[in-house]
Design a protein that fits this description.
DUF4192, elongated, two-stranded antiparallel sheet, alpha+beta, Cytidine Deaminase, domain 2, disordered C terminus, 14 helices
């Protein structure tokens, strides 16, 4: 995320940080080393004790935040925006996190709680900026990022199953790659699955997406193996994270019932690492609806709810990946033939 230099920038950036345009919400954006860190959104609070604000502040303390940006999207029926922002600011001050900006948004207008210049920040506020025409939006479009969803419902709709997921021929095609019998060379299937993940990621990087249905079915089916799934969890890099994001979302929507949980968990992990916590939790909803009690989804739910910094989660994933690769390919560094995987 680019540097935020004004209230306009902050208001424009938040939908990109959380994936959709929030309403009736309280948003906290972490500042660390003068850079924008994680963004947390919670429902607009109602009669919360001070301890609840301290819990929210603890997530920033865990990340090592030096500052924070606060935005209250106040419901039309409430008039306590200043008190809510003040209570949260006090909780952050108790852990020595500076308040770099605090904005109250209501009725299509915004005003800063820390600006005392009436010419800059009149008591009646200013009209909300047009986000689509902002510098922040332009930078995201140039970088190939999509615009935020209109609301959380639209965000949820973006990961709903596609028609193909219920097609009987498609279900059979996927299922053949998930079948394992006593005569199966399990390690050979794991190698095949890991290779398929890399091959399909290459297809998405080249802009061909899921055109190769046989390869797509192969990846979805092989992900029923925990080793293949864990290999896939760590297979992306900073350079190809956008391609993997598109891939896991597409495969989650194409996966038949009973095959959704592994892909949805992978997508949730990637969404969280990208700072899109709301989308990550919606993906976990899909995973647990598909396989109740799915272990990875439950683990990720605990991690996300605890407010783990995305950077810490990414570091854990990177540390695990060489070990999983070695288990599949039988080499310490995860070599496949003459190629490094």
């Amino acid at each position: 995320m680019t540097t935020l230099t004004s209230p306009h920038d902050l208001i424009s950036a938040i939908p990109f940080l959380i994936g959709y345009h929030p309403v009736d919400s309280l948003v906290v954006v972490s500042i660390k080393d003068d850079c924008v860190g994680m963004a947390m959104r919670v429902d607009y609070p109602s009669d919360l004790p001070a301890s609840a604000y301290d819990l929210l502040a603890s997530h920033l303390q865990r990340e090592g935040s030096s500052g924070a940006l606060l935005v209250a999207y106040v419901p039309a029926t409430r008039n306590d925006g200043e008190a809510v922002l003040s209570d949260l600011a006090e909780a952050l001050k108790r852990i020595d996190v500076a308040i770099d900006e605090s904005l109250l948004i209501k009725g299509g207008r915004y005003r800063s709680m820390i600006c005392t210049d009436s010419l800059c920040c009149p008591s009646g506020g200013r009209d909300l900026p047009e986000i689509s025409a902002s510098r922040i939006a332009l930078e995201h479009v140039i970088a190939g990022r999509t615009m935020p969803f209109a609301n959380i419902e639209a965000l949820t709709d973006s990961i709903l199953p596609l028609v193909i997921s219920e097609d009987s021929k498609w279900i059979t095609r996927v299922s053949k790659f998930a079948k394992i019998d006593k005569k199966t060379d399990l390690n050979a299937l794991q190698r095949d699955g890991a290779t398929a993940v890399l091959d399909l990621a290459g297809e998405f990087s080249a802009g061909r997406g899921s055109e190769d249905l046989e390869l797509t079915a192969r990846v979805i089916g092989r992900l029923c193996d925990i080793q293949v799934r864990d290999f896939a969890l760590g297979s992306h890099t900073d350079e190809d994270i956008d391609s993997y994001f598109l891939m896991w979302r597409q495969l989650m929507r194409m996966a038949p019932v009973g095959q959704v949980a592994p892909v949805a968990s992978l997508f949730a992990a990637l969404a969280y690492e990208s700072g899109d916590g709301a989308l990550a939790h919606r993906a976990l909803d899909r995973a647990l609806a598909d396989i109740n009690g799915y272990a990875l989804a439950l683990l990720l739910r605990r991690v996300f709810t605890a407010g783990w910094p995305p950077q810490s989660f990414a570091a854990m994933r990177r540390e695990l990946h060489p070990k999983v690769s070695a288990g599949i390919f039988g080499t310490e560094n995860g070599f496949l033939g003459n190629e490094t995987i």
